[in-house]
Amino acid sequence: MKVYSIKELLSKGKNALHEEVIVKGWVRSFRSNQFISLNDGSGQNNLQIIINYSQFDTNTLKLITTASAIRVDGVVAESKGAGQEIEVVANKLKIYGHANPDDVQETILQPKRHSLEKLREQAHLRFRTNTFAAVMRVRNSLSFAIHQYFNTNGFFYVNTPIITGSDAEGAGEMFTVTNFDLDNLPKNEEGKTDYSRDFFAKKTNLTVSGQLEAEAAAMGLGKVYTFGPTFRAENSNTTRHLAEFWMVEPEVAFYDLEKDIDLAEDFLKYCIQYVVDNCKDDLDFLNKRFEEEQKQKPKEERSEQNLYEKLEFVLKNKFIRLSYTEAIDILKKSKPNQKGKFKYPIDEWGADLQSEHERYLVEKHFKTPVVLFDYPAKIKAFYMRLNDDRKTVRAMDVLFPGIGEIIGGSQREERLDVLRQKMKDLNVDEKELWWYLDTRKFGTVPHAGFGLGLERLVLFVTGMGNIRDVIPFPRTPNNAEF
Ligand code: 4AD
Ligand code: MG
Q1: Could you tell me how far CA 343 lies from the centroid of its own chain?
Q2: Alpha helices in 16-129 (DSSP H)
Q3: 255 φ, ψ to 5°?
Q4: How many CA atoms lie within 13 A of 26 on its CB side?
Q5: Strands 20-31, 2-3: parallel, antiparallel or unpaired by DSSP?
Q6: Ligand 1: does its nearest atom lie under 6 Å from the Cβ of 449?
Q7: Could you tell which of 208, 212, 245 is best to mutate to test the pocket of ligand 1, judged by most ligand atoms within 8 Å of the CB?
Q8: 2-111 is classed in which CATH architecture?
Q9: Sequence spans of domains, the chain
Q10: What pLDDT tens digit does each residue of the chain (482 aa) get?
């Protein structure tokens, strides 16, 4: 007798007829003391188990309730019901864990429609729901595709530290890491906290990006990428921001910004194509969910495309590449700007672009993914390469429909003197980053890279609307439950 996952067994289909099999999973429903719908998480589809109730004692059957965990030993038979080729006729049943129906009633395991908010409140149980399990499997496939893409293209995976002393983005949005007793902080002579007595003998924080360390690695290994958790203490309670998210950061020696954008476009298309090719059942489900969700929205907010069309659209079209300056011109003249519809009106060059502006360009003006480049130096991080105009830097952002910024990257400032000046201008501590400056002293080269927020990509590919629904246990302002 072979133990099968439900996905494996269903994909064998009629080739498995008459085989004696063992399956294990959680009961989704048990109808008429006869039909169990079983799911083990391996895929979107449930396996139907047929119970000949005269064959089992009633006490056992009573324990088979929604959410309980069981093992079935049985024989594969042709299914008479619609929607499935095969089913399993049970010979033996084992109950691992019973679930009390009164308790189940209170949870999202109760088989009916629950809001995504309710699912979030029971995040420890939502892996059992069709929607969240589909998102998790797609997320898994995307992570795999990311490693596969870089691996087949000659990149080395490097692990950068999670605890660091530096603020890679220079934005001051960090969580401090300490083992001080916070109620009894050691003070120095000036009455300030004495970090020299802390665990690392300095002030440390959770990393906001592995980029600076990845740059050091690229200066020896050539092509590298990081893929790990990053932390931002920015107080933005939006559907696109997490305080803890997973970032992928490739870094390549001898690349300029054009090459960097080429890489970003090719990489995104590869990952999306991978999911289209490998996650059909889950995408079918998510597409239906997406279409139903659109129907409930007011007409002007509805997506014209279904999920598959959205994905195909990105795969087929070349991303538009446009300078920040050109984008500002378009935005200035745009209808929403003229009519005062933007929350942040665009009136002059140098303004930081908000998500509403990014989405206008992508969804209304160009109707295709857009890559903006050459941003004002003042609104971007210190490490970006200064252009000859001395006003702009070789930065790029990839903007996606429904998401806004999905990737942020740049060509790096490889000239030591210019980098030093930029750090001075932007108030970045040279002492802390002595080692980063060193990478510009011993065979410095032009190089470039970018960061992709994994959750933003998962959002796009699954058609979900809130970033809290694409990561198992979201960390957001005022929320670190579970
Ligand atoms: O644009 P960001 O801040 O760039 C960096 O961190 C660079 N060091 C990347 C690099 O060049 N190596 O962040 C990069 C991406 C964003 O485009 C977005 O997808 C994601 O990370 N991101 C977030 N995702 C979820 N929640 C947040 N709070 C995010 N902040 C950034
Ligand atoms: Mg950015």
Answers
A1: 27
A2: 58-63, 101-105, 116-121
A3: -95, 145
A4: 18
A5: parallel
A6: yes
A7: 245
A8: Beta Barrel (2.40)
A9: 2-111, 130-161+222-469
A10: 999 999 999 999 999 999 999 999 999 999 999 999 999 999 999 999 999 989 999 999 999 999 999 999 999 999 987 788 999 999 999 999 999 999 999 999 999 999 999 999 999 999 999 999 999 999 999 999 999 999 999 999 999 999 999 998 988 899 999 999 999 999 999 999 999 999 999 999 999 999 999 999 999 999 999 999 999 999 889 999 999 999 999 999 999 999 999 999 999 999 999 999 999 999 999 999 999 999 999 988 888 899 999 999 999 999 999 999 999 999 999 999 999 999 999 999 999 999 999 999 999 999 999 999 999 999 999 999 999 999 999 999 999 999 999 999 999 999 999 999 999 999 999 999 999 999 999 999 999 999 999 999 999 999 999 999 999 999 999 999 99
User: How many CB atoms within 10 Å of residue 112?
Assistant: 5
Nearest CA to ligand 1 atom 14: 451
456 alpha carbon, closest ligand: 1
> Is 455 close to ligand 1, i.e. is its CB under 6 Å away?
yes
The amino acid present at 221, given as its one-letter code, is: L
Closest CA to 358 of 406, 302, 297, 313: 406
CA dist., res. 217 & res. 187, Å (int): 37
Helix (H/G/I), strand (E/B), else coil: 166? coil
| 130-161+222-469 has CATH 3.40.50.1100 classification | no
How does strand 320-323 pair with strand 370-376?
parallel
Contacts for 419-426 with beta carbons within 8 Å, 24 or more apart? 419/382, 419/383, 422/377, 422/382, 422/383, 422/386, 423/382, 425/382, 426/170, 426/381, 426/382
CA of 397 to the centre of ligand 2 (A): 7
Q: How many helical (H) and strand (E) elements, i.e. helices and strands, does the chain have?
A: 15, 17
Ligand 1 atom 21: the closest Cα is on which residue? 453
Instruction: Say if ligand 1 is within 6 A of residue 375 CB.
Output: no
Nearest CA to ligand 1 atom 7: 451
What is the residue with the minimal CA distance to atom 2 of ligand 1?
Answer: 408
Nearest ligand to the CA atom of 243? 1
CA dihedral (205, 211, 214, 219) positive or negative = negative
Instruction: Give the integer Cα–Cα distance in Å for 172 and 329.
Output: 31
Which among 128, 108, 127 has a CA at the least distance from the CA of 118?
Answer: 108
Using a 6 Å cutoff on CB, does residue 169 contact ligand 1?
A: yes
What is the best residue among 208, 436, 456 to mutate for testing ligand 1's pocket, by most ligand atoms within 8 Å of CB?
A: 456
